[in-house]
Design brief:
Elements lengths: L5 H7 L7 H4 L3 H10 L3 H11 L4 E7 L5 H12 L5 E5 L10 H12 L4 H14 L5 E5 L1 H7 L1 H11 L3 E4 L8 H10 L2 E6 L8 H7 L3 E5 L15 H9 L6 E4 L5 H8 L4 E4 L1 H8 L8 H13 L5
Parallel strand pairs: 1-2, 1-8, 2-3, 3-4, 4-5, 5-6, 6-7, 7-8
Length: about 300
Amino acid sequence: MGGDDYAAFLGKRGGHAKNPLRSAGLWASMDVYSFCLMDRIATTFARARAENRAAFVAYLCAGDPDFANSHEACRALLKNGVDILEIGVPFSDPLADGLTNQLAAQRALDSGMTMAKVNELVVALRAEFPEVPLVFYTYYNLVFSNGIDVYVREAKAAGIDGMLVLDLPPEEAVDVAAACAREGLKSVFIVAPTTPPERLPVITAAATGFIYYVSREGVTGVRDAVAGGIPEALAAIKATTSLPVVVGFGIGKREHVAEVARHADGVVVGSALVNVIRDHLSDRPAIYAAMAAKAADLTAGTAR
């Protein structure tokens, strides 16, 4: 399966009317955790709502272009209005990502990033930013090959709040969901434009953190305009869940953020931020200031 087919695959796969997580007896434990603990993710979305704005969710690949500058780039985001940081775990075959993020992952791997170093980066960020939600953006091969329980336990110990496993649909996520429930990690699942209406309750019932609406078919990357149909898609999703819904894929300008923020609980920007790193590879000390300026510009669009 090629990357261009990712969103269509995610939307059309499955179709089970029955939630496998609920059938496995996991959903009840997730409900208890969700309602009994006001976590960083829930707190952040509640604060954004109280301030009449959308939460800003930023993505960067851990270790791009190297450990030290990746750390500084993340710090620049979190000091300049970013509410939630999605930390991409570098992977050799990131099928949901366009060229920008593919190259970021390759730079990170070439610099020597490992899973242990990714967790080390999380530890450093958590120490400085104790209240900010940190979410892994990862792939199932990485989770499985490291051992599901080990991967989730070490992520939690490092300071991660939730996990989005891009290529793992809820019908096949029982083991990962169980590990997350045991460790108190939130699960994030994706809804695509091609998702059949009857499948929405399956996806939203499996999530415990938030829902990520992929606003267009294809892969990640900056686009000239925001995709159409977002208000209608969000209304359909929200009819099945009380969890926050964020919108991503193709959002890269302040005006894009402002357009999406009118409807969504959160706005996700990734490739436009990764491009800041790409554009400063020959002057890496300049990455922090450039990233700070880009974050400040984009987050200004979240007000309603």
